[in-house]
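To illustrate the input format used throughout this study, we show a single complete record. The first block contains the structure-token representation of the backbone; no residue identities are included at this stage. The design step must infer an amino acid for every position from geometry alone.
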């Protein structure tokens, strides 16, 4: 088993030689996530040098592709904000409950999302204390989110995706504004989420009337492989708001990779991933 976790644009070159070993490979970069080679010049600015390999990689989201991951030797793990958005949206897109061209994802992410090497913008003295608009249009994770939701919808889905850098080290919170196709009630939504996730070990539906953590919150899942999802219906504005939270280094990266490894190798899917998270952090 080989894990590759290099900057995007680097994995893409190393991959043919690694694939030729015949070993199972899990790549954490973006280089083999997108299925349509035309997406690479559009979202990454370069032509994919090995488009023949793209269809051989399965996107590492077990909740959507478990069987294909089990049967595959090649898995590309999704982007951290992409998987957090996709898991919140998948049930309502699959059940055709919302307009597929009016989906607005407002994401917030901690500093570890930028990797280990500090730049002027990510150096502690600049990054500490920020609530910074970061790539409000054209963020690359948009392509993955649209790819996966379009598959579920069996038609084109358009996503408006705007991330923000906030004052956390680990964690992502997505607040997702959507617009229902008709009247929506909580029981219909519960049914959609339970239908997709009731047997999932790492997706929890968080929607409580009492207590401090009534909606998904990255603070209580840091260190865990959970993706918490939740929703609220806004009757006043005919809006359905979805929420999702992950630890970008766990379900957003290494946790997903281990979950996929467990599936590919026939281990228990939760092996090595049962940490409940650290709280308070
Ligand atoms: N951080 C996240 O939240 C997150 C989440 C999901 C996916 N990802 C993706 O995962 C990948 C790694 O992200 P990261 O945050 O861990 O980045 P990172 O902290 O910057 O680490 C990148 C690693 O790649 C190594 N590397 C760079 N060029 C290489 C080469 N030519 N050959 C071999 N190794 C090379 C670096 O080693 P040196 O230090 O020796 O150069 C470094 O250890 C990226 O593609 C990123 O987009 C990151």
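Output of the design step:
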């Amino acid at each position: 088993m080989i894990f590759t976790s290099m900057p995007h644009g680097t994995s893409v070159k190393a991959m043919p030689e690694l694939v030729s070993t015949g070993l199972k490979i899990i790549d954490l970069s973006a280089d083999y996530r997108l299925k349509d080679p035309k997406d690479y010049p559009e979202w990454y600015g370069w032509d994919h040098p090995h488009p023949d390999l793209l269809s051989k990689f399965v996107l590492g989201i077990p909740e959507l592709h478990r069987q294909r991951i089990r049967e595959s030797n090649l898995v590309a793990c999704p982007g951290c904000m992409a998987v957090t958005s996709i898991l919140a949206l998948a049930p309502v897109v699959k059940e055709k409950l919302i307009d597929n061209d009016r989906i607005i994802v407002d994401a917030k992410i901690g500093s570890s999302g930028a990797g280990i090497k500090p730049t002027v913008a990510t150096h502690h003295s600049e990054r500490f204390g920020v609530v910074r608009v970061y790539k409000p249009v054209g963020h690359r994770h948009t392509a993955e989110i649209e790819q996966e939701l379009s598959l579920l919808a069996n038609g084109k889905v358009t996503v408006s995706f705007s991330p923000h850098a906030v004052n956390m080290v680990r964690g992502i919170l997505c607040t997702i504004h959507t617009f229902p196709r008709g009247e929506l009630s909580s029981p219909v939504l519960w049914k959609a989420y339970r239908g997709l996730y009731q047997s999932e070990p790492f997706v929890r539906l968080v929607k409580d009337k009492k207590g401090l953590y009534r909606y998904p919150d990255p603070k209580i899942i840091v260190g865990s492989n959970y993706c918490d999802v939740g929703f609220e219906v806004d009757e006043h504005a005919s809006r359905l708001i979805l929420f999702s939270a992950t630890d970008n280094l766990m379900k957003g990266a290494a946790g997903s990779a281990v979950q996929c490894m467990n599936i590919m190798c026939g281990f228990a899917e939760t092996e090595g991933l049962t940490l409940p998270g650290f709280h308070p952090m």
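Structural context for interpreting the output: Residues 5-8, 10, 28-30, 79-80, 112-113, 115-117, 248-249, 252-253 surround NAP (CB under 6 Å). The longest helix spans residues 250-265.
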